[in-house]
Amino acid sequence: MKVFSILFIVVGCVGSLLAQADLFPYGVASGDPLADRVIIWTKLEPMKRAAQASGTWEIAKDEAMTQVVQQGTFITTTESDFTVKVDVTGLEASTYYYYQFKSSGKMSIVGRTKTTPAGEADHLRFAVVSCSNYQAGYFNNYGNIGRRTDLDAVIHLGDYIYEYPDGGYGDSTLLASGSRSIEPKTELLSLADYRQRYATYRRDADLRYAHQMHPFITVWDDHETANDSYKDGAQNHQEGEGDWMTRKQIARQVYNEWLPIRGEAMPLYRKISYGNLADLIMLDTRLEGREKQILDVTNPKLLSADRTILGLKQKKWLKNNLKGSVARWKVLGNQVMFAEYNVGWAASSSSDFTPEQLESVFLDIWDGYPAERAEIIAFIEEEGIDDVIILTGDVHCSFAYDIAQKPSAISTAPEEVTYDPATGEGSVAVEFVTPGITSANFDENIGLVQATLLQYQMNKPLPTGVNPNPHMKYIDLIRHGYLILDLTPEKAQADWYFSKNIL
Ligand SMILES: [Fe+2]
Fold this sequence. Notes:
The protein is an alpha/beta fold. It has two domains: 16-114, Sandwich (Immunoglobulin-like), CATH 2.60.40; 124-499, Purple Acid Phosphatase, chain A, domain 2 (4-Layer Sandwich). It is built from eleven helices and 22 strands. The strands form four sheets. It has an eight-stranded mixed sheet with strand order 5-2-1-11-10-9-21-22. α2 (140-147) runs parallel beside α5 (205-213) and α4 runs parallel beside α6.
C-alpha cells in the first residue's frame, strides 16, 4: 500500500507541474557558460498559432526566485519555431543561478545553471555524454546526470538525436512494444522533420531534467545531420533526398534552435575557459572541413599528407588554442576516436571479413585521417604542450588511451614503435571515450559472447606476441552510461558510470 500511496503523490506532483507548464512542455535549458554570462533557453507552445509570442525572463540567486539579479523581455516568432534564447550577461563567476520564463500568465519550471570560474580554480567536474538514440532505450543515464549535484556542466559530444525513420534504428523489444515511437515516422529531411524530431526527444522527462539541472556545452556529430556525414555529403544522404547543402543548413538551423549554444553554431568550434584550470576546446570534425571517408585501408589516398578531418581554418585555430592556452588542462571536445584503433587481427577464417576489410570498417574515425592525426601529435610534442585530454563520443563504447605517435608494432616496424606501455613514455596526451547513453554497442551488434571475447583480447598480446593496442588502458564494449571528468591542479581523472538496464 505504501508503494501505491507514494506513486500517487508522485503522479499528483507531476500532474500539477504539467498543468502549470503547458505553455512550456519542453522545459528549460542553459549552456555555453562563461565567467560573466550564460545562455538560457526555452520553447513556447502557444495555444493559438500566432506569428509571434512574447514574455519575460528572470535569473536569481535562489531556487525560490526571490533574489532576482536580472530580468528582461523576449519576443519569439515562427521563424525560430518559438524557441527562446537569451545571453544573460553581467553575472558573477563560478556561481549557481536559477532562471525562469513567463508568458501569457504561465510560468516555466525553474532551471539551474552555473557560470565558469574567472581566475583561480581548484576543482571542476563534468559529465561527458554522447549518442542518445531514443529508440534504443530509455534515457536513464540522462536522468542520473540530472540528479547529480556535483557538476559544473554537461559536455555533449554529439548524436543528440538520430535521423532515421521510426523503427529504422533501435532496440527490437522497444520497437515491437511501440513504447518509444518517434515523430516524424520518416527519415529527417525537411525543416519540419528536424524540428519535430527534437521535439520528440525533448518530451523525454529524463533528458529534460538533465537540461533543467545543468548547463550543457554541446557539439554535433553525424546524426544531427545524417549518418557518417562530412563537409560535402553523408553515407545516409542519397540521391532523391534533395540537395545536401540545403539539408546541412536545415540541420544546423534546427540544432541552433534547440540547443543552448552561443553564436548560432557558426562555426561550431569554440573555446570555453574554466579559469586557470581548464580550457574546453570544442571541435567540429564533421561538417566544418572533413573530406569524404575512404573506407579501404589498402587505398594509398588514405595516407595523403593533406587529407583533413578538421579543415585548414579549424586546424590553425586548434593549434593556436593549444599553444596559447595558459590553463592547466587543455580539454578537446572531439567527436570520433582519435587514438589508433587496431582491430583487423580479429578477423578469423570463419568470419566474412579479411583483416583489411575489418580494419576498413573503422575509418570514419581519426584512423581515416592518419596524416592529420600525426601532425597534431607532432605539434603537441614539438611545442611541449603538457596535459592535453581528448574527450570523445560516437563509438558507443568506453575506452581510455595514451596517445602516442606509433603505439603498436601491429601497425609499424617494431623498432619504430614510439611508446612504452609499462612507463607511458612516448604518450603526449590521453583520450577518454564516453559510452552511448543508449545507442547500440558491441554486444547489441555482434552478440554478448563475441563482444566479451573481443573486449578481452583487444589490448593483450596475440599469439604472435604483439599487443595490437598497448596504448588502450581501459575498454568496455557492452555497457551504456556516461563518464565523469574530474579535474584538480594535481590530476585529471575519468570515472565511467553505467546503468544496469536501459530497457
Ligand atoms: Fe552515435
